[in-house]
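INTERNAL TRANSFER SHEET
From: sequence group
To: structure group
Subject: NCS1 family nucleobase:cation symporter-1

Please process the attached sequence and return the structure record in the designated field. Keep the field labels unchanged so the import script can parse them.
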Amino acid sequence: MTETRVRPSDDAPSSSTLVNDDLAPTTKETATWRTWDIFCLWMTSAHSIASYGFAVGMLALGMTGWQTMLALFAGVLLLWLGSNLIGVAGQKVGVPFPVFARGAFGVFGANIPALLRALVAVFWYGIQTYLASTALMILLLRVAPGLESLTGNDILGLSTLGWIAFLVLWTVQLAIINYGMEVVRKASDFAGPAVWIGMIALAIWILGKADWSIDFNARAGEPLSGGATVATFVGVAFLMVAFMAGPLVNYADFARFSPSRKAVLRGNAWGIPFNETAFVVLSIIIALATLKVYGKVLADPVALVADIDSDVIVVIAAVLFATATVGINVVLNFVSPAYDISNAAPKYISFRTGGVITALLSIVVLPWKLWENQNFIIYFLGGVGALMGPVFGILVVDYYLVRKQRTVLADLYSDEPTGSYWYTRGFNPKALIALAIAGPVAVIVALAPDSGNITALSWPVGATLGALVMYALNLHKPAAAG
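Return from structure group:
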């Protein structure tokens, strides 16, 4: 029998300043994300230029091809476990991430983790849009070589053609989000499966150039000792989780729309252990083939596509890569800040307005310049992103161990001091203390100089410490009745 969730309309008090139509609980009518949709969501999340670059980048750490694949698979299993914890909770409560976080952090305190998540997402949204625009530029130049004349100037770091490609994709994404989560679902259902066509075609082409043979014992970096191999293996596994730490934290934004717990678990199972592993394996195969053909690993599949002689194949591949990157961008970096920004002032900022704010900020930050500045990526985005580990640990412990999976739904929207999640003036001191202790530790680990193996432990250290402190603070006196 299918588990179904039906919510009365008065679960979210209309008189509260903490609710709008987009942040309100999911209803039976809006619970349309079934197993296939969740599966496609994870496909869309995995299938991007950045995801490919991450996977093959791990190959440069000194492990062999098969060791890298096993390490990434271990990370995929950890990600699967985390997605089940957040996904089941999000589906049961039926609210987006910033509202779900009110249970742990307080009805106002939830803005702290929500806006931290939004900050990271805004920057990555701009960067991913820029990366997709590079694929679109390749397509435009192949179709109309005369456009080369538009690439010789510089306007704030982009050529005229660069601006055209960027703004075209920027507009397409804004149009998708403007129609709400149902269109996001349909876009994800298309983008996720579509990129497999491009990846398989790219693999066939490069394997053909490599005479259909690759060496899974090959490596792009210097060989490692036994101990160093183990340390790197563990590091790569946790880096896989850290790479998806933001989307993992705000997974409730999507799981809330699933009609049953079973649909979430099935979608997670097909979308993460099965699909993400397949994508990792294919990415490593392509990387090993490029290592054989070019003598180096090409971390950017767009650069690989540009080397193909056939205009037809280049056009198809460019369209698919651009489509995939748009899909992942909307799912991972647009939905979250739209909800998070809306949560800061629900009466004045809707989901769509939050999306417009996100889109505008993504231009203001000049993402192409940020992408060139690896120090910014490492120190700022890496540092803020490291806080997602503690937030995950706090949310999981609060929901499963402190409140025992019980939630007073109406009180998540209550701005009255009598509400269960009012705590102290709308802030839960215990969650904030846990974040204040675990957060700096996670950031310090993430930014450890010249120590890749230590840096890789940022997520598990932050998540574990945040969870332990939150649990310890609630041992004798639970924070809320729930």
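Handover comment: The longest helix spans residues 261-294. The domain at 22-372 is CATH 1.10.4160.10 (Hydantoin permease).
Transfer complete.
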